[in-house]
Amino acid sequence: MSTMHEADTLLAVDVGTVNTRASLFDVVDGRYRMVATGRASSTAGAPLFDVREGMQVALGEVSEITGRPFFDESEALLIPTTGGGAGVDAFVSTASAGPHVRTVLVGLMPGVSIESARRLAGSTYLDVIDEIGLTDRRGEEAQIDVILAARPDLIFMVGGTDGGATASVIRQIETVSLATSLLPTDQRPALVFAGNTNLGAAVMERFQNGAAVALVPNIRPSLEQEELEPARLKLAEIIGQFRSQRIAGFEDLNAWSGGYTMLTADAFSRVVRYLSRVYDPDKGVLGIDVGAAHVTVAAAFDGKLSRKVHSDLGLGTSLPGLLRHTSVSNVSRWLPMEVTEAEVRDYIFNKALYPGTIPAELSDLHIEYALLRELIRAGISRSRGDWAEGASSELMPPMEPIIASGGAIARAPRPGYAALALLDAVQPRGITTLVLDPYNLVPAVGAAAKLLPMITVQVLESGSFVSLGTVVSPVGRGHEGRPVLRIRIDPESGGEPIEGIIRYGQLVLLPLRQGEHARMTLRPERGFDVGFGGPGKAGALRVSGGALGVIIDARGRPIELSKNPERRRALNQKWLYEIGAMLES
Amino acid sequence: MIANHMPRVRHILPMTRVLRERKLEGNAILTVRVKEKVQSTDVIAEVQPQPRHHFLDLASALGVSDAEAARLLRVDLGTEVEAGQVLAGPAGIARRTVRAPANGKVLSLSRGRLLFEAREEARVVHAGVPGEIVASDGSNSITISVVGALVQGAWGNGRRGWGVLRDVGGSRSARLEPSELDMILRGAVVLVGVVDNPKTLHQGTEIPIRGLVCGSMASELIPVALRMSYPILLTEGFGATPMNSPTYDLLSTNAGREASVEASLLEPYGTQQPEILVPLPATQDLTKVERIVQLQPGARVRALRAPHVGAVGNLLHLMPGVESFPSGILARSAMVELEGIGSAPIPLSNLEVIA
Questions:
Q1: How crowded is the C-beta side of A409, counted as CA atoms within 13 Å?
Q2: For the segment B246-271, what is each residue's pLDDT rounded down to a tens digit?
Q3: Is the ipTM of this complex over 0.85?
Q4: Residue range A331-359, pLDDT digits in tens
Q5: Interface probe, candidates B1, B2, B5, B6, chain A, greatest A C-beta count within 10 A
Q6: Which of A288, B122, B221, B301 has its CA 20 to 30 A from that of B97?
Q7: Which helix H or strand E contains B69, and what residues bound it?
């Protein structure tokens, strides 16, 4: 990252698997604003394997909009801004594009060190291809053969609490050392040891065959303690180096951003953690980023962050991985029209072949958003086990806000489309706000947060993010049509109050425009909880408007879909109309 | 006007020169030299598969100490040995010995344990295409230069093969039924529009055919296709989309000639595309394989998504601003004159250039 701490203009580039985006931020009326954004196809993959081409096109768009050139004649980025208004004061870059780092985990106990290593690996762009542990039934020879056959890019070794086990850890280190010594020198993996700190010297001694081992603080200093951050930083560095070795142009991005292109998932998660400290401490903050090759789910509760990068989920090349976590019929259940399971399956595999394509037909859009729902559901359900709150409950813990990012969500033809997909997928409870990141700015402000601490909150509060609206989701069960809630909204602008009764099964939009505020009074019926301290408890709060106003989702939690396909399709269609995603013809 | 968009490029070239690199995993012995001419069936390398490793506990087998075991070792570390060859001993009154469990190599000795690398049967690598060896690093890669027709596909099952190209069905949308695969097609590379029956794929093994090139295939057949020993290449993708017309025209014209099918598995950030090569004598000008082609008026393009998936046409002009589509999505688009359909706006993201 650039070393400047006083900067007016910030240029951010995010290199994704399908899209490369560039965003220019400037200070307007004393606050940071996104002033222009550009997008291009990513060129990190075949045939170019060079991120610069896509970046130049994206930056070209920003230049065209703003009239601001960014490069000099030698194609070097102009930092800081020149007197003539060219260049920028600061530059940050983030990337999720690039091949995954093939990783073998080596540890002791499955429920302790290996569990922590797995958690860490799952929070970043590593592809764990095998695990070797103390309870591994394979012999030492077989473990050597596993490493040789896997040809890993990284061997991540853990095990032993500080001052704890030594002999068994060393035995495993010796196996790894022997295996790596059998690999050709140019194919030897990166080695990281994050186990018993007391074994540092002994570990180094075992790798005197020319392999360089990075020693980082123990991820499990004690049985009760888990310390992932130092190892996470090291892994991020290795992932960055790995990408730079295989894809051209990352060196330029690194140089312009002070030597370091941040991982998109790290930058995204940083924003989620920051917001969890700023917003209601009794609620968590949820961030979901659906890319072509990954789904990132970040949840933070009062600063305690947990994140997962699901590399087998994504609305592009990774889409077939969804079928390992859900069925085609689970995807089809969200469709408002009849589509055969074979068609949905073909759609999944074709989208993986052509990840950059977009749905031009309405039926394709419905399939894409049905897939989006299941991707988010699978991502959340596979992440919740690590959350600080609500890990074991069937219902989502209270979240405020829920931020959604990613190309497909950003492309929603109408805000209701994105909102309904999020409500169906996340099924939030109580009161929350749905926020869309249509320009993929979360990674940018996350990467810039250390450099320009004010940028996160100022950009979030600007119009660059779309608040879909405040959502009220009463929790409880009832019969269709039974009263669930009495609501009254008193706009602060002094307009007419809105009052009404919400019935079970309804999805209701109440008008409150983005930027407007109102006092909302909720009186739930017995057995229904809106988050005011229990079922039937009433309360009032100040709410903000959004693109859809105030959304009352009285469909119950969890949403139960009819088993009758025709009725289910009719219901999906009704909800699309109710939330304004489809217009009555 | 040129679009500020980098499209996918699909090569469908009647006559070009391509360089095909054969990556050799493991220890390889090359059997060809640079500038040598090869045929598809020629062996170009012998590759040792990944060896298996065994620890031989010399100390306990010989009933001696670790230090004594080292002294009793009869072969130098790194030496190639034959199965049954004495590695250590004799020791003790029973004159115990330790013998090599297989052909292989003695790698290291530590604390009385010998690490032994068992050599597996070498596997041969065929050229797969007729051409000339133009480069080699001497151990892990050989590059063959081939002149002929090149057609890139969309998906492959990870196999490679060659044989005489046969157009079964006679149209780009013909559905291949199991009964159509008979003994006449033994050893052939079969060209067809659509496959949707797993029995068809199994029948291909029975005959056996040497390759299957089809427009599209039902995605539920993927697990079956991955198990087949012959290459299966899809030019369009999954479902029932007919083969695109330039591909079908070029391949059907070359029916009766030998074709090489490289049905490479698509890997993220991989370099190998599935492709068919029809080697031809270089009798006309060769078209250069362009990796980057701009989207501009006159470009030959193919639609990747509904409503015109697989249709081919000429780009008429890039549309100013963004276009609204029936899905409600707004996208930068081009007006394309599609063969047999007429002109239609198509999002730039849903186009690939045929070059």
A1: 32
A2: 999 999 999 999 999 999 999 889 88
A3: yes
A4: 999 999 999 999 999 999 999 999 999 99
A5: B6
A6: B122
A7: helix B66-71
